[in-house]
Amino acid sequence: MTQIGPETNGVFIISVTPFTDQGEIDWASVDSLVEFYIVKGVSGITILGMMGEAHKLAETESVAFAKHFIERVAGRVPVIVGVSNPGLDSLVHLAKRAMDFGAGGVMVAPAAGLKTEVQIRDYFAAVFKRLGPTVPVCFQDYPLGTGVNISVPTFLQLVDDYPSLVMFKHEDWPGLKKLQQVRRACDGQAGRRISILCGNGGLYLPQELHRGADGAMTGFAYPEMLVSVCTTFFAGRSDEAEDIFDIYLPLVRHEQQIGIGLAIRKEILRRRGAIRSAAVRMPGPRLDKDDLEELDRLLQRLERRLTAIRGRSGIAA
Amino acid sequence: MTQIGPETNGVFIISVTPFTDQGEIDWASVDSLVEFYIVKGVSGITILGMMGEAHKLAETESVAFAKHFIERVAGRVPVIVGVSNPGLDSLVHLAKRAMDFGAGGVMVAPAAGLKTEVQIRDYFAAVFKRLGPTVPVCFQDYPLGTGVNISVPTFLQLVDDYPSLVMFKHEDWPGLKKLQQVRRACDGQAGRRISILCGNGGLYLPQELHRGADGAMTGFAYPEMLVSVCTTFFAGRSDEAEDIFDIYLPLVRHEQQIGIGLAIRKEILRRRGAIRSAAVRMPGPRLDKDDLEELDRLLQRLERRLTAIRGRSGIAA
Amino acid sequence: MTQIGPETNGVFIISVTPFTDQGEIDWASVDSLVEFYIVKGVSGITILGMMGEAHKLAETESVAFAKHFIERVAGRVPVIVGVSNPGLDSLVHLAKRAMDFGAGGVMVAPAAGLKTEVQIRDYFAAVFKRLGPTVPVCFQDYPLGTGVNISVPTFLQLVDDYPSLVMFKHEDWPGLKKLQQVRRACDGQAGRRISILCGNGGLYLPQELHRGADGAMTGFAYPEMLVSVCTTFFAGRSDEAEDIFDIYLPLVRHEQQIGIGLAIRKEILRRRGAIRSAAVRMPGPRLDKDDLEELDRLLQRLERRLTAIRGRSGIAA
Amino acid sequence: MTQIGPETNGVFIISVTPFTDQGEIDWASVDSLVEFYIVKGVSGITILGMMGEAHKLAETESVAFAKHFIERVAGRVPVIVGVSNPGLDSLVHLAKRAMDFGAGGVMVAPAAGLKTEVQIRDYFAAVFKRLGPTVPVCFQDYPLGTGVNISVPTFLQLVDDYPSLVMFKHEDWPGLKKLQQVRRACDGQAGRRISILCGNGGLYLPQELHRGADGAMTGFAYPEMLVSVCTTFFAGRSDEAEDIFDIYLPLVRHEQQIGIGLAIRKEILRRRGAIRSAAVRMPGPRLDKDDLEELDRLLQRLERRLTAIRGRSGIAA
């Protein structure tokens, strides 16, 4: 089954969009990136999110990218396609194409400029009406990026009204309590169950799992850490899961710098062989000599720590 | 009766806070300003609002200003005291002092930084609990100034929960539909009646009256226009009311420039003899030679128009 | 000559994008709208601005719209194409296509998310480098829409650095002093002359002309008023120009409501026969019965006033 | 010497303001808190910052708090007093009182609402004029809190213009490059030296030290970690410094949640005996059962890690 649903869990990695140094989509890197993610054990992949530079792609590019990506994945894991767009027609167009290509669902954030919660509700009423009942939807709650805030009761109203809303991407910040409130209300008993995956670069992943998250949806350049943390946690070894997490935390924090974080992430993916160029489309950040030396130091420290741990224990970090 | 209530109507002028050229409160001008407003026929006065530079007064100054002002008014009209404050203790302290001095009620805007409507509700729950049931409250809905947006259902919930909430100061922008929705829900039949007075410099006053407002709460430097428009409208002559309004509209628009508008308003009040200095506390706008010449032209045009109208008709503009 | 330059003046009307009730571009209405604007005497037309719902068009639609529009105008007046886009590649792509079609220049606003003035300068350095020296550029200064603020010295630095920057679309608010500072610095003597056209719905047009604007670039549904005001003002009859303006001011103000203002404007254009449908693409405002009755009243008042004036004088309003 | 200057370095802890459970300033806890900080080895203390809930204190409380605090410190380390205020008079009043009490300097952030960098410059021109040349000033660069962004050239202009500007509190985010640019320009050779201390909860402290910071100014509840990291780093053992830091990083990150982070910090300080109550003034966050259990887990993990480290090595963490 390659569609997302209320029971979906694990790690949905947020994919970057690989470009050549000239800024064109690098199709060869798309292929290698897909394999990289799948080899690392992710449960799914989300494309065309904000970190996927979706807003800098032409609509035709987005469609072509979704098609190519989904075909390359070839049903091995579900692919969620970010379709947020200032125009509803464009949103629906991409969503329908993506589902035709075999996407597992779509991710929608409230449009920038929505101010009250009634406006958010009206917006999603229009979105769900246009998408119809068969497109599984992940609601992206990312106020830091969208400027739109939704309270828990309003979100729960959406859950009540639209059965195709099956996933909550939690990345309000700070938002541990909000995550927990949604979890308790949507646990399958107090209310219809939905899947909750957490973003925010994974900075609070152990805490979020304790609060009831079903996994992560973020783009950290070491997906195997996210996978290992989730697997270990759900195997009942929460402290061990957090030990693994803490090893990577300095880098998680480093990637979590808004703006330049994307350039850092792409550079690490390049070094790891996942993509050929770390290019970010303009306007976007560039790493200079100081940034690269700083990254060198952090990666060396990580490597040393991983080596030490592997020597001391059997942690599959 | 000098307390506000659900039936309150007419013009509540938003008072400036007069300063000397050195930036001290000019108590003599407070006295003359009170008389100016009352002579112009206002139904009430609101002090220590945003245009009253309340955030630039020390707490002791605010208390002293409220006391002096209310004593000078001496019960001739109700005085509403703006008590919005980042700290709840400070808010409550000023509110209680003001009521002791004989204020007709207090005005509270949601604190900057509130993001969801649940947060707004929780905030006002705390406010009303601390104020107790006997302090009449005007809710100031001014998202452009506070950054906080509330939808109609959430506001109506506050009306249901707190009987001492008796007035809605409408200045969402644009917000004609919102005003009307509140009106229809709080008309005394569909729901408990509350008073609705409109701000935003009065820029849409005739439209707001058509939509069900009970009057204006704004600081236009010609209060007699606001009074005349409201009186004429409620006498059933809406077109005549709008004719009066349109005569002043160029100046209403001119005063409605955020920031410099306050300096313009104080300069007009100074020219009209209401206060002695147009000083605005730092940081604040200053009028330069170009601004003053521009204002000269606008005031001359207004004067010419008023003269022509008085010649042609009996309009009491 | 159909390219814009430092001497460009008069009224550049901001065109709406006409849609059918189903939300498709209504090509027949594009044609009628072009004729409507030209008959009203505009000096130029700006398409794909924010009020043109550019952000809700797919890139292919924008290209097709620009092509069709420019061909229909057929060189009678210059056409400026708004090309602002979160992605620089998309911006440049549309700009180059537009110039190929015969556009008179392009309009660029700083990308949302730029925070410091150094970032703004860097952004425009990239824009101008990619556009090359032959594409005339209008800088759109619209902080209320973009969230990006630029001070006068930073803007003047751009003027110094990029000769193809030939026009300043002023719509900071309030911003009369800013307009004047740019005017004095770019008057052809103190510094290189550039054209200054004013937006903000025209709400302060007479004041802006006094401050040195070369005309208006806004979308008011009665373009003939804007033309008449500018022509009369530049003929040396500033008071008469403002008299004409003030007749329309209630409606100018009514259209200047952010969000719903666009629906009002399209409805008036529909009533005037310029377009067949007032449809706004989702998400976007809709007028209800109350809004339409309110508009009826305002248009009747305008009509009465115009009739009275025409009877009394020879004003070509 | 208890005044700050261009050579100031080390850890300036940002002090909380201790309240009783009833919300009054808890003077006994002020005394114990002072001793706690000094015992932990800080080089200075900053009071009445944003995390000190300064905006929720009445002006008279701020003055009394500054007086009491400075007297208790009694010259053992310099005390910086945050004096940011929407009104310039209030700012200056508190600054002068604080200096009279023996403060080491004052901290000023640009007032909320400043939009362009010219406005920022004008604002600080007024601030420095009013403060005079003898009050050492720390510029707080905290856009996430103030909404005001300043670029490096504009800040350097302030350094050139005002010799009493001796310290830069860096907490733009992300802002490692900005910090480095200020460092290189203000290194005592390329330009006048100023002190640079870093905030943001210390989340990037090792990176900031590498980039040239002179230390930290933040409020982490384990000041001894900040001290140890800085001391070790400046002793030339940067990797060891970062090892110490990384032990605490999970908690640093946990405290760095805007809003609730303050409640967490106060709760830890309470548990450590520094203050008697973790109360935060309204409106402010409260920790519930889930929050407290989460904190328990994180503190236990920290304790275990510290024990393990102490066993294995001689790290004075």
Task: Supply the key terms.
homotetramer, 317 residues, alpha/beta
Major sheet attributes of chain A: 8 strands, parallel, barrel
Spatial order of the strands forming the largest sheet of chain A? 1-2-3-4-5-6-7-8
Largest interface: A-D, 28 and 28 residues
Number of helices of chain A: 12
Give the gist of this structure.
The first copy, chain A, has 12 helices and 8 strands. The first copy, chain A, is of the alpha/beta class. Chain A is globular, with a radius of gyration of 19 Å.
Detailed description of the structure:
By secondary structure, chain A is an alpha/beta fold. Chain A has 12 helices and 8 strands. The first copy, chain A, has helices spanning 27-39, 59-73, 88-101, 117-131, 143-146, 152-161, 176-185, 205-210, 223-234, 238-255, 260-271, 289-312; strands at residues 10-14, 44-47, 79-82, 105-108, 137-141, 165-170, 195-198, 215-218. Chain A has an 8-stranded parallel beta barrel, surrounded by 4 helices. In chain A, strand 7 (195-198), helix 8 and strand 8 form a beta-alpha-beta unit. In chain A, helix 4 (117-131) packs parallel to helix 6 and helix 10 (238-255) runs antiparallel to helix 12 (289-312). The longest helix of chain A is centred in the C-terminal third of the chain and has 24 residues, at 289-312. Chain A is globular and about 50 Å long. In chain A, 54% of the residues are buried. The mean pLDDT of chain A is 96. Chains A and D meet through helix 7, helix 10 and helix 12 of A and helix 7, helix 10 and helix 12 of D.
